[in-house]
Specification:
This protein has no helices and 18 strands. By secondary structure, the protein is mainly beta. The chain starts with 6 loop residues before the first strand and ends with a strand.
């Protein structure tokens, strides 16, 4: 504790933005020699959060259907890959992301956009609809995304078979997973069967 009558003056203190700062404190007292202290002030970047429903469903009407999402800060805008919306009936995997900024970390979230044809219901060809899981894009050329309606409660396994019934790929789905990515770039073109628990989905690789 400084002696009574000591004044403390700070230099470079009271920062707002993330970063590392050197702060100087000068202590003065009429009865003592001045004392200068230095310290490092570190402000870490905050977590960026994207708020959006994992699956967003629309009915086809000939207009573009865009997914909606919001970000918990205003230092940058959200970006969408490959794009924010589509017009035709189908299931589309879209990645929403925000780049790292001065005060916030990078963040990304996978969204499934579903556009259905009301005249055909939810089981029409082209819209891969399976209880508990949905996949997109299908057909696939590179990355297939498997969407779960809620975080997986227990560790499970996804398996992929060729049409001869031969197991060609398997990988665990960890507890808490909502989106699982499968790299199809090294699969031969053709038709495959994806199995998750008792659910089966036909996947076309082109």
């Amino acid at each position: 504790t400084p002696p009574v009558g000591t004044n403390v003056a700070y230099t470079n203190n009271g920062q707002v933005n993330a970063g590392t700062y050197t702060v100087k404190a000068t202590l003065t007292n009429a009865n003592y020699t001045d004392l200068i202290l230095t310290a490092t002030l570190t402000i870490n970047k905050a977590l960026a959060v994207i708020t959006a429903a994992n699956t967003q469903t629309f009915t086809y009407d000939g207009t573009v259907k865009n997914i909606t999402a919001s970000l918990n800060h205003t230092e940058t805008a959200l970006s969408y890959s490959p794009q924010q919306g589509y017009t035709e009936v189908g299931d589309y995997a879209i990645t929403v992301f925000a780049t790292e900024t001065t005060n916030y970390q990078e963040v990304r979230k996978d969204i499934l956009l579903q556009i259905t044809d009301s005249s055909l219901g939810t089981d029409e060809p082209g819209a891969i609809t399976v209880t508990e899981i949905k996949v997109a894009p299908n057909p696939v050329s590179s990355i297939l995304k498997v969407f779960f309606p809620e975080p997986v409660p227990n560790k499970e396994t996804i398996k992929i078979y060729d049409l001869m019934g031969q197991l060609v790929w398997e990988d665990p789905v960890m507890t808490g997973t909502t989106v699982k990515e499968i790299d199809f770039r090294y699969f031969y073109s053709g038709t495959y069967i994806l199995k998750y628990k008792k659910k089966i989905v036909k996947i076309i690789k082109y």
